[in-house]
Each structure stands twice: as C-alpha cells, then as structure tokens.
From TrEMBL:
Keyword set includes Manganese: no
Locations listed in the record: Cytoplasm
SUPFAM superfamilies documented for this protein: Enzyme I of the PEP:sugar phosphotransferase system HPr-binding (sub)domain, Phosphoenolpyruvate/pyruvate domain, Phosphohistidine domain
One MF annotation (Gene Ontology) recorded for this entry: phosphoenolpyruvate-protein phosphotransferase activity
Catalysed reactions, semicolon-separated: L-histidyl-[protein] + phosphoenolpyruvate = N(pros)-phospho-L-histidyl-[protein] + pyruvate
Protein name: Phosphoenolpyruvate-protein phosphotransferase
Domain named PEP-utilising enzyme C-terminal: residues: 256-534
Assigned protein family: Belongs to the PEP-utilizing enzyme family.
Enzyme Commission number: 2.7.3.9
C-alpha cells in the first residue's frame, strides 16, 4: 500500500484509474543544428506550417469548449498564429542554422521574456506562449501534443501541472478528479477545479510514484491519495457520485445552523456577469467585489464615469442586498503600470493595495467617487473596504475618505497579522472587517502563495492562521461592545472572503471562531449551507477550538472532519 498527501483545493471523494498527462515536451538541445545538406529555406517553412496545424487543433478544441475555457483556447489559438513567434524562429533557422525545433524553442523564450517584462496581464500570457511553443515543437517532431489524454472512459488525471489550454479543455465528465505534483492553492489549476466542483489536490509531490493505470482512492477533502481501495472508500465515492446526480440546492436566506443561528452566505465576484451568476445561485449578497479587474491590462486609470458604469452594472443584480466592494488591490501578482513600481525587490511586501494611495491619492479617491455615484443609482447597499491594512492610522484614513462621500459602512480587509492582532482598535474606528484568508495565510506563514513548493504552508487550516481569525473576531466583539454578540446582533461584523470560506468543513470552523458571514464561489454555496445546517453554534465552537489547538494543519483538518460525519455522507 502507498499513500501520498498534497494540499486539498476542492473537496470530493472518488475511486478511479490514474491516467498520467504526457510529460512536458523536452527542450531541443542547444547545439541542435540543421541536418547536413538540408535546405534552410525549406526547413524554415516547416515552422509556419506546424504553427498552423497547432492553431487548427486548438480551434477544434475551442469549438467543443464553452465559457472561459472557450475564450482561453481561442486566445491561445491566436497566439499560435502570431507572426512574432514564427518569423523570429524562421530567422534563427535562416541566419543561424538552427533546427526548426530549436529555433521555435528559442523564439518562444524570447517572446515570453518580453511579455514578462511588460508585467501585469501581459506577463500572464508568457505561460501561454511557452505552451504554444511546446505544441509547435511536438508537431515538428511528430510527437503527441501535450495535453489531457483523449480517453472516453472516466479517469483520475495526474500531472505536474496544467497549462491554461489544458484546464480549458478539462471535461468533468471524463476527468473525475485532478492531482498535480506542482502548483498551489491559488494556481489557475486550483481555481478552475473549484469553479467546476472537481475534486482536486495540488502539490502532491510523490503522485508520479503511482504507475499509469493504478486504481486509487482520492480524498480531496483531506488531500490524500491511496492505492489500497476499501469497501468504505467505494461507499464514499458512491456518495459523491450521487451528489453529482442530485446536487444540493441553496434557496438563500443565509446558512442556518441546527439551532437556528444564521450566517450570511455571500458570493465573490469580479464583474457584472459574475454578479448575475451570484444572483442566480441565490447568494445573500456579495462578500467580495474584486474591482481591480477593471484596471488590469491597461496603461492608464479608467475614468470615474467608466468605473461608475461598471459598478452600477454589478449592483443592478443585487437590489436590496449588500455588496462588499474591495477598493483596488494592485501590486504583487497584479502590477499596474500607472500605479505600482515594477522594480520593487519584494512586491508582496511592498507598496500594494491601500498603500498605493500614499503617493497616488487620486486613484483611490476617484474610485470611491465612482462607487458613491453608482450607489446613488442602485438599490444595492455597498459596503466598501480597503485591502492590505496594517495600522489603525490607515484604517482611520480610509474610513474618513469613505464617510466624506457617504459610503457607509466602511471597513477593512484583515490580511496582515498586525491587523488581526489589533482588531479591537481597528474596528473601533471602522464598521466591519473581512478576512482575506489567502493573504493572511501567506503573511502569517511567510510563504509566497504563488510558489507551488510552499503550498503545504499556504494552507488555511494552519492553526496559526485560525488563531488569528479567532483574534480578529474577538477584537471585533470588544470594539462592538458585546463580547458574546454573533450574527445579526454583532455591531462590528467579521466576514471571510478568502477561498477558505468555500470549504464546507472549514466553514464550520470559521463560524465557530466567530465569523458572521462567508463569501465564496457560487458553486460552493449549497454544500456549505448543508454542512452548516447539521451543527449548532456550540458544536461549531467546539470543533473550532480543537482545530486551533491542533499541532498541524493536517491534524486540524482530520479532527474537524471526524466531528462532521455529514462530509463523508456527501462524499466531501
């Protein structure tokens, strides 16, 4: 028997056969030249022909895809036809005598490096360029293109990680679970798996020890994979399969605990289309409106009028409900040329989010003006919060800017340990707090959340992170004047809008720690509501205390799951 562990990113339990994604295309040797006697012109012409074949294959995949996956594939197909890649590669053949495969490899590196230097959205496209480069090289060699195995029977996909074009073609009818040896909780692979409701584990370093074709049991709630498949494992998997056939429904009105205690269940959005989906899923409102998507991929700041229109369009789907708007969270992995410094040695600890207002005040004040204007045109109730707050002085400054514009409630995001520890003083000068567990985990564990090698540290089940959530809630109760207040009775409410809120088991812990609202992808709402309905507030508090007292993140997860039999019954 062998059992391997990774980081759970999307719950579910399945039994199935492992099928391994083909390894990455090997880099052609640096010394690889044209064969003796080969005509450079003829060899150079093979490159655009191979690129055209790759483009055609990607177009065919796009035709079978939908939504975001279709858009990704269409964009990648366009990149395959980009003459900046093929012409550069042809030049390497004609002038340097390189083989077509080596020429394409070097040209791809050159284009990708150029895009990375531009930063922001363009830097993210570098991954796509390298993916296209590998596909063209495979075509030139007559090898199978990298990608998901084209099998008809369902299987568990194992891979080092997935390229955007791979995730876009991921069919949950065939791929019943996903396990990668690289990646992290915030990788595009993890995000897509959560959107699809696909059981997924990342950073399972030893997963490739299993031979292709091995039958395994994947517990994507615990983050474990084992090849000793028992009858109990089959029962768990059957429960998950049944859940997919008869998915849980969520009627709205909050998460109601067994004793009648209510917890608001909200949705995370980035634009009006997301808001429409959240409304269709009966979310009680929006717990995180990521406004920076309006600012990305542009050289200058959007006008107040443009921002007002975008916010109004999102608010229109949430009439009578609250929409928690996060002001621009630029910097770190979201650089903006007109606002952030691309040369900072450590951007995650640099001038990002609220801190950008220290030098460029107008970007924040313009955004607040736009939110205020949109609020006057809408029946939604905007709650505005600033990200990356560390001191009470910062909170006072932001709250004053909001109140000058009639934007109340005004709050902060708790993403730094300093904000969590001083929550009593922070909440004394603002109206609410929302915990961003993704960044709070990163800063608590001193582990860059973009690095797959640190994924085991970037786990919201870490007892240290849970202790800071508890400290935030305790501070908010003190600031609100009633240490025992909860839910609608809390004068200074605390929500969670990080990915942790969508984990049904962790949602129980967060409520037990004192969190009043949970915000997640709309797909997670039914499972979270169902699991919350099986516990009382006192039981949630007991499980939360055990989690905080646990030795490790794994121990915390295990002890809570042991106290929530509903997770096993649902196959979660």
């Amino acid at each position: 028997m062998a059992q391997y562990t990774g980081v759970a990113v999307s719950p579910g339990r399945v039994v199935g056969t492992i099928r391994t994604m083909a390894p990455p295309v090997a880099e052609p040797p640096v010394t690889e030249k044209l064969p003796e006697g080969a005509d450079p012109a003829v060899e150079a012409e093979r490159i655009p022909a191979a690129a055209a074949a790759v483009q055609a294959a990607l177009v065919r995949l796009a035709e079978r895809a939908s939504g975001d996956g279709k858009k990704i594939l269409e964009a990648t197909a366009q990149m395959a036809a980009d003459p900046s890649l093929t012409q550069t590669a042809q030049g390497f053949v004609l002038s340097g005598g390189k083989s077509p495969a080596r020429a394409v490899w070097e040209a791809g590196d050159q284009v990708a490096t150029m895009l990375e230097g531009l930063g922001g959205y363009m830097a993210e496209r570098a991954t796509d360029v390298r993916d296209v480069r590998a596909r063209i090289v495979a075509e030139l060699r007559g090898e199978q293109a990298p990608g998901i195995p084209g099998l008809e029977e369902p299987f568990i996909l194992t891979a080092i990680d997935l390229a955007p074009a791979d995730t876009a073609t991921l069919d949950p009818q065939r791929v019943i679970a996903l396990v990668t040896s690289d990646g992290g909780p915030q990788s595009h692979t993890a995000i897509l798996a959560r959107q699809l409701g696909l059981p997924a584990i990342v950073a399972a370093k030893s997963i490739h020890e299993f031979a292709d074709g091995t039958e395994v049991f994947v517990d994507a709630g615990l983050g474990t994979i084992t090849d000793e498949v028992t009858e109990e494992h089959h029962r768990f998997a059957e429960a998950w399969t049944e859940l997919q056939k008869n998915p849980l429904t969520y009627e709205g009105g909050g998460g109601v605990l067994e004793d009648g205690t209510r917890v608001q269940l909200l949705a995370n959005i980035g634009n009006a289309a997301d808001a429409e989906k959240a409304a269709a899923a009966n979310a009680d409102g929006v717990g995180l409106f990521r406004t920076e998507f309006l600012f990305l991929d542009r050289e200058d700041e959007p006008s107040v009028e443009e921002q007002t229109a975008a916010y109004s369009a999102a608010f229109a789907h949430m009439a009578g409900k609250k929409v928690v708007v996060r002001t621009i969270d630029a910097g770190a992995d979201k650089p903006l040329p007109f606002l952030t410094d691309a040369d900072e040695p450590n951007p995650a600890l640099g001038v990002r989010a609220y801190r950008t207002s220290w030098e460029k005040r107008s970007v924040l004040t313009n955004q607040l003006d736009a939110i205020a204007a949109a609020a006057k045109q809408s029946e939604a109730t905007p709650w505005v919060m600033a990200p990356m707050i560390s001191t009470v002085t910062e909170t006072e400054d932001f709250a004053a800017l909001c109140r000058e514009r009639g934007l109340e409630p005004a709050g902060i995001m708790v993403e730094t340990p300093s904000a969590a520890i001083t929550a009593d003083r922070q909440l004394a000068v603002c109206d609410f707090a929302s915990i961003g567990t993704n960044d709070l985990t990163q800063y608590t564990m001193a582990a860059d959340r973009q690095l797959g090698s640190l994924a085991h540290l970037n786990n919201p089940w870490q007892p240290a992170v849970l202790a800071l959530v508890r400290a935030t809630c305790a501070g908010a109760r003190v600031a609100g004047g009633d240490p025992e207040a909860f839910g609608e009775k809390a004068n200074k409410p605390v929500g969670v809008c990080g990915e942790a809120a969508g984990d049904p088991g962790l949602a129980v812990v967060l409520v037990g720690l004192g969190v009043n609202s949970l915000s997640m992808t709309p797909r997670s709402l039914p499972a979270v509501a169902k699991v919350l309905s099986t516990v009382t507030l006192e039981q949630a508090k007991e499980l939360a205390a055990k989690a905080v007292a646990a030795r490790t993140a794994e121990d915390a997860n295990h002890v809570v799951r042991a106290g929530l039999p509903i997770l096993g019954q649902l196959g979660l």
